[in-house]
DNA sequence: TAGAAATACTCAGTGCCCTGACTAATCGGG
DNA sequence: CCCGATTAGTCAGGGCACTGAGTATTTCTA
């Protein structure tokens, strides 16, 4: 009677998209290392020695989740975690040799997987796909913080 | 050195999009009822008396997850679950009056939330956004089953 | 019609994701 | 210098999502 069409609900579509991605990742990339775990490895390849909070910021994981992910990667021996001697609050992170190897291997497979995943779209459509999702996510993210005083909420015309 | 740009990785973008949505849902729609829970309520408004598996199919949740979601909705008194007398394997589901009320209330709020969420996109872009995501998800979903004999993998030209 | 196959559901285990409360360390202003 | 605010990380708790194994029920078939 008053039911709604979920295919026009971005949240529902986002969930389905992620599930589809999970499926493909699991079959084409790895059953051991998850996509968020790969994102963490990747962040540490780009910037070794980052502290835990910053890694979370780079890959979009909150303090609790990043702690769990890092603990799992540590258990697998893919990264090392040491207290910052300069600031006893921080944990500094660095890939092990194994971590680097795993990252390299998965980078290749991930590229292949992305091709398959995006195959239904033309090159132009893929660019559009990225930019539309990015814009929506960024805007919503901007609504999070109550806007620093003097700062505009989202982007300002240059 | 060999780090990758995650902003061109659809999986990463999908995760970020869902997080953004979660955030908005939590502040604009409900802190009690989640988006997947709403999807289940919605499916039962459209088709009362559905069995558990079919509801899962409608909203895109696997057998285990749908069981959990339904158990939570049952605990809150939003739906009733009875054994099918015709087929003792099935559980038939139906909203309670309370469930219907909650669905109506959230339908309104969800519409408002979607507007805010999609505000950064023009009308044309929103349509594109839906269709691109849909196409990618459907295609990946199509790779799941090993293709019924005689049936084409994805869509067939009409 | 009896046994095999399929189907609906449950349960255990793993991982992601968030909030809110807490601890420990650092930093800043009086 | 010290006390209050800020910051990094941990922990408990709730919810989503998947796989693999197990149970009960139905259905198909030899």
Task: Provide a brief overview of the structure.
The structure is a homodimer of 158-residue chains. By secondary structure, chain A is mainly alpha-helical.
Report on the architecture of this protein.
Chains A, B: One of its GO terms (biological process) is response to stress. Chains A, B: This is MarR family transcriptional regulator. Chains A, B: Residues 1-138 form the HTH marR-type domain. Chains A, B: GO terms for molecular function: DNA-binding transcription factor activity. Two copies of one chain form a homodimer. Chain A is mainly alpha-helical and 158 residues long. The first copy, chain A, has helices at residues 10-28, 35-46, 52-59, 63-75, 97-118, 123-142, and strands spanning 79-83, 91-95. In chain A, α1 (10-28) packs across α5, α2 packs across α3 and α3 (52-59) packs across α4 (63-75). The radius of gyration of chain A is 19 Å and the shape is globular. In chain A, 36% of the residues are buried. Mean pLDDT of chain A is 90; it is low at 146-158. The interface between A and B is large, with 61 and 61 residues. The first copy, chain A, binds a DNA duplex (30 and 30 nucleotides) through α1 and α4.
